[in-house]
């Protein structure tokens, strides 16, 4: 894996963290697009758990835990996605092979912890896609970036877990969120951040629309297996079959990801069979594209996009393709923030009306410049993030000292809260609380080793920064 080799010369080392150890369209695009903007850096792409992504990315993806524990990076960069509420167990179930998940479910609690540590390492993992730099002594003062993330899901967590996630976020140097709900959450807790369109809009800059001949007779439809179960596959099939405005078009069922909890070929086959049974003349089949940019090209060439995938809508916007989003909180929040003219919050009952609206000249006129505007804004935002993170401040002693001091404060607040929670449970008679089991609680029960490690790591980076300044 050439991307994980030590860089030549003074190229900054950047650890990119995201959900690209599994097949999910948007997450894979986050990685590929971020790499385009970090060509001056030596980039390592890693995830909470390892995965072989040769089929889709031409590489294997390592777990970030062992790498951050053993190697030093200049920056740890979360590449995007809905990372606010994802749990360790949820990430494991979506990422690891089914055999591992079954063995994990059948194991005793102590054995489960050992299994996690074998694939991720021993450092605490409060938020699987947002590594806490202070959990890794070698990288305790590395720059921390969260770019193009969604964090609104934090509000749905239990209060103790919300507090942990917010303290992890306080260690970040730069946070860019992609929707107003996430921005409002951070603002309410005094966490500095920026609000900007999703990074994937930059496709309009890096892969211009002229590359894509439009297939005026194709409509792409995407819906997850879970959502089909909730709606009822029969009800959704009925909506596609009875839509008079879809009648002139070929319907292609689009796979936005085949990882657990995403789309399903089997569900699509059942859906297509039901549509054909109701309307034998309806041309419906499964779209064959699987690699990330092939999927992008399919959307760019379509007449209309209909789906639950946020990045399906974003790619369609990038290329000026009319788009309809089915009802989903994350999608609704994003569309309200950046792309309100094209239909969203659509249900099977009003799908046909939404098709008419999305294809109408009036809506097309109102949204004509949306794709280019969002692409320019997203392009400027990531360029600024790269400059701020990997520019002169990378080795500025004052920046490193300030970062170390801020993280010590956040870490001590986290430690204090964990101690208080453990004591409260002990006072309530929970004997297990006397021997904390969570990684952070184990940290809280010890003297303050993390503060000393953080200071040591910070001093090392300050000295290295001073040497670089003298050499210049």
UniProtKB/TrEMBL annotation:
Keywords, ordered alphabetically: Transferase
InterPro entries in alphabetical order: Polysacch_pyruvyl_Trfase
Residues of the Polysaccharide pyruvyl transferase domain: 159-327
Domain of life: Bacteria
GO molecular function, one term: transferase activity
Protein name, as recorded: Polysaccharide pyruvyl transferase family protein
